[in-house]
Specification:
The protein is of the alpha/beta class. The protein is built from ten helices and 25 strands. The strands form five sheets. Strands 1-2-5-13-14-15-16-17 form an eight-stranded parallel barrel. Strands 6, 7, 8, 9, 10, 11 and 12 form a seven-stranded antiparallel β-sheet that branches. Helix 4 links the parallel strand 13 and strand 14. Helix 1 runs parallel beside helix 2, helix 3 packs across helix 4 and helix 8 packs parallel to helix 10.
C-alpha cells in the first residue's frame, strides 16, 4: 500500500553542540515512522571550520564525518561518524529514507596561506573591479593533516577556487577575485553575479573540482548508504554543475538518489528557469509558497486566502516542489528570518500536509520547539495533521477557494486506504461554513473536526455534500467519526 511521503528537517540552527543529535535521531527512528514521517533531511555531517561548534555549513573536510581529530575535535556538532552511520541504518530499518545535506559552494578553515595575485571587486556589483591586481595572502591550501590522505589524497589549492573575502597579508576583509579567474556563470543574477557567497569560493569550471566532488559523492553514498541529497545554496553554483553531477553520481552508484535544491528566490519564474537548466534532475524547495504563508500570517486577516498558492512552485510544477512552512534559515535570528506566526502554523501545515500536490517538509523547530528563542513545540498539533496525512489524505481533491477569508477543500479517499477521505476549512478571519462535496460514498456518515475547534459533528447528505465549518482564525480538519451507539 502506497503511503503519502512526508519529509522532516531534523535539526534547527541553535541545537546544542553536545554531539548527541545522531543518537537522539536513532532513538526517534521508529517514533518518526509511526508519526507518518517517511524521510528525514539531516544537517551537514562533515567537519566544519569551527570543529564541534560548527553547524556544518562552514565546510572544512567533506571526508571527515566525525572520525579524525581536526579543528580541535573528533566529533562534529552532532556526533561521530559511527553514530551517524548507525542512525541512518536505524532509520532505514524503520522504513524512513535519509537525505544528507550537501554544501559544495565553498570551503573554510584552510590549513595554509598561499600567495595569490588577485583584484578587489565590488561586493554589490560583482563585475566591477575596484582595485588593481596585487599579491594577497589567501587561505586556500587544504591538506587535511589530521586525516593523512585516508579516503582521498586530493588537496585543494588556490587554483580550485576563484575568489575569497580575506587578505591575510593586509588583514583586510574585501571581495577578491583571483588573477586569471572569472566568476562562475549560470548563477543567480543578484549583485550582478551571485557566484561568491563566503569563504574560499569553489571554481566549478576547473575539471579537477568536478572529478573530485563526484568521487566524494560516490564515496559518501557507499559509506553512509544515504538515499538522497539536500543541495545547499544552488543559486550560487552553476546550474550545469548539478545537472551533470547528479547524472554522473546516479550512473556510477546505480542508484536513483533523490535530490532537492535550496534556491532562495521568491520569484517562481526564476525557480522554473533553474529547473529547466538542470533538466529537472532535482526538486526545489517552494520558497514562493513560504513567503505567501509568511505574509498571510502577518496580515491580521487582510490576506486574500484565495491567492495563497498563486505564483508558487507547487502550483506550477507540483512533481518537483518540496513545500515547507519554516526552516533553519527562516527561524528567528537568522539571515533569512521570515518566521511564520504561531497562530497561523496549523493553517500553514494543513495547506502543505493535507493536499494532493507537493512533497511537504516538517521543520524540527516547529515539531520539537526552539529553546533559544522560547518557541514552543507544536508536536501535538503536528502529530494530528501527520496522522491524517498518513491515513486519510487520499483520493480526488475538490477545492473551494471562493472567499478571501475562508477557503476549503475535500479529499474523497480511495479504496486502498480504509476510511480515508477528509475535509478542511481554513479561516484567517471570523470563520465560516462551506458546503463542500466529499463523495456520495459518505452519504449519511458523520464527520468531526480532529483539531478540536469545531465542537459539533456534521452529517453528509444524500448527494455527498456536507456543511463544514471553522471558527475564527483556525483550521478545521474533518474526518469520518461515527457517534457511539
Amino acid at each position: 500500500m502506497i503511503e503519502n511521503g512526508t519529509l522532516m528537517q531534523y535539526f534547527e540552527w541553535y541545537l546544542p553542540s553536545d554531539g548527541k543529535l545522531w543518537k537522539q535521531l536513532a532513538e526517534d527512528a521508529t517514533k518518526l515512522k509511526t508519526a507518518g514521517i517517511t524521510s528525514v533531511w539531516l544537517p551537514p555531517a562533515y567537519k566544519g571550520a569551527a570543529g564541534k561548534d560548527d553547524s556544518g555549513y562552514g565546510v572544512y573536510d567533506l571526508y571527515d564525518l566525525g572520525e579524525f581529530r581536526q579543528k580541535g575535535s573528533i566529533r562534529t556538532k552532532y556526533g561521530t561518524k559511527k553514530d551517524y552511520v548507525a542512525a541512518i541504518e536505524k532509520l532505514q530499518q524503520a522504513g524512513v529514507n535519509v537525505y544528507a545535506d550537501v554544501v559544495l559552494n565553498h570551503k573554510l578553515g584552510a590549513d595554509e596561506v598561499e600567495r595569490v595575485h588577485a583584484s578587489e571587486f565590488n561586493e554589490n556589483s560583482r563585475y566591477q573591479m575596484i582595485g588593481e591586481d596585487k599579491v594577497i595572502g589567501a587561505w586556500t591550501k587544504f591538506t587535511f593533516p589530521g586525516r593523512k590522505g585516508k579516503y582521498s589524497d586530493f588537496t585543494w589549492n588556490w587554483k580550485h577556487f576563484d575568489g575569497i573575502d580575506w587578505d591575510q597579508k593586509r588583514a583586510k576583509h574585501a571581495l577578491f577575485r583571483f588573477a586569471g579567474k572569472e566568476w562562475n556563470e549560470e548563477v543567480d543574477a543578484e549583485n550582478g553575479n551571485y557566484d561568491y557567497l563566503m569563504g574560499a569560493d569553489i571554481d566549478f569550471s576547473n575539471p579537477e573540482v568536478f572529478e573530485e566532488l563526484v568521487r566524494w559523492a560516490v564515496w559518501y553514498i557507499q559509506t553512509t548508504n544515504v538515499d538522497g541529497f539536500r543541495l545547499d545554496a544552488v543559486k550560487h553554483i552553476p546550474s550545469s554543475f548539478y545537472r551533470d553531477f547528479l547524472a554522473e553520481v546516479r550512473k556510477l552508484t546505480g542508484r536513483e538518489i533523490f535530490a532537492v535544491g535550496e534556491y532562495w528566490n521568491g520569484d517562481v519564474r526564476v525557480l522554473e528557469d533553474y529547473m529547466a537548466s538542470i533538466n529537472s534532475e532535482a526538486s526545489l524547495f517552494d520558497v514562493p509558497l513560504h513567503y505567501n504563508l509568511y505574509h498571510c500570517s502577518k496580515a491580521a486577516g487582510a490576506y486574500d486566502l484565495r491567492t495563497i498558492f498563486d505564483n508558487t512552485l507547487v502550483a506550477r510544477d507540483p512533481i518537483h516542489a518540496v513545500t515547507f512552512v519554516d526552516n533553519h534559515d527562516t527561524q528567528p535570528g537568522q539571515a533569512l528570518e521570515s518566521w511564520v506566526d504561531d497562530w497561523f502554523k496549523p493553517l500553514a501545515y494543513a495547506l502543505i500536509l493535507l493536499r494532493r500536490d507537493g512533497y511537504p517538509c516538517v521543520f524540527y523547530g516547529d515539531y520539537k520547539g526552539i529553546p533559544h528563542d522560547k518557541v514552543k513545540a507544536k508536536k501535538a498539533m503536528l502529530d494530528k495533521l501527520l496522522k491524517v496525512r498518513k491515513l486519510k489524505a487520499y483520493g480526488p481533491q475538490h477545492d473551494y477557494f471562493d472567499d478571501p477569508d475562508c477557503i476549503g477543500w475535500t479529499r474523497e479517499g480511495d479504496e486502498e486506504h480504509k476510511d480515508s477521505g477528509l475535509a478542511v476549512v481554513l479561516s484567517d478571519g471570523k470563520g465560516g461554513t462551506k458546503r463542500m462535496y466529499i463523495g456520495r460514498q459518505f452519504a449519511g456518515a458523520h464527520f468531526s473536526d480532529i483539531m478540536g475547534n469545531a465542537k459539533y459533528n456534521i452529517k453528509i447528505d444524500e448527494e455527498g455534500f456536507g456543511e463544514f465549518y471553522v471558527n475564527r482564525a483556525a483550521a478545521a480538519v474533518w474526518v469520518r467519526r461515527e457517534p457511539k451507539a
